Input
Amino acid sequence: MASLSIPQVIAGVANKDYKEGVIYVSPKGSSDGTSWENATDNLNEALKIAEKQSLDVYVSSGTFSGNKDSLSAFVIPEGVNVYGGFAGTESSPKERNLNKNKTILSGQNLQRVLYQPKDFTDTTFSIWDGFVIEKGTFKEDDEYRGAGVYMRDYSALVNCEIRNNSSSYDDYNYGLGVYVDEARHSILENCLIHHNTTAKDENDEYVTVYGSGIYCYYGSNIINCTIADNVSSSGDYAVDLSGSHNEMYNTIVYGNKNINYLGEPRETKSITIGGSSNVHHCAIECVIEHGNNNYNVQSSDFNEDYSLKQGSVCLDMSTTYEALSTIDLKGNKRVQG
Output
């Protein structure tokens, strides 16, 4: 696992000239981040420098964690695009192999993984592309929202896998995978959100979780995602779009569960929708009245990796949407109907 103690060499490079407009991060790095050969291993420090100098951040495969004493392992900087999934030789995100090179951000089951502290603007839009976000949870003095990712306005998660985030706090917990806070210009695209789950508290009872996969308070755009095998409790569902102005396109919602405080199964509905929220051209394991051209799917429609089987009614039935990514997480071009 990469060490995030500040290397002596990076402490004095806050004003260094990064001629390529990029700062490079690798778990094997020990230098100033000016190239892959001179990469730094300190992702948090690289993010601070990138925000100050308007740089992109390229992060190679490996596992990165933050300061254990902080509420969140990493803070989303304003106006910075951060790309994972590099082998450590590429010159552009287009050259990455995301299946082969996994860049993991870990909360170590001690803290939230990724946090956006404030709304950004259309001119400071920030993208995190190509990361595995896992093992997030809440500290006792936190607000119990977004164990994996807490998003606000004008940020995007693209080509990310958000998995194995949980909470055992006996309180109301929201969005174990992702929590979107009043962000009509936020985007989740081409993401796999799975196995985010409620856990038992000190009384050996499962805690209340609203939107174990994702909870959108007000406004979000969910595009070409898969949300599967998440576990909520006490009456809510894996996808909670109960706020207004949430839009979901071309997304699979399948295999999620809802249990009570004893772990007993409850209604298997995967999604709750309210206000003026809608879903479009989605494959969902229940009947949806909001939106149009959605499909009620069953286990027979899916392979083990959540991809659609040949013969599924949902194949090639997605809608055209202006997207940040034209391929899926397996590197295949998305077919649009």
Summary: The radius of gyration is 19 Å. The CA atoms of residues 1 and 63 lie 5 Å apart. The helical segments are 43-53.
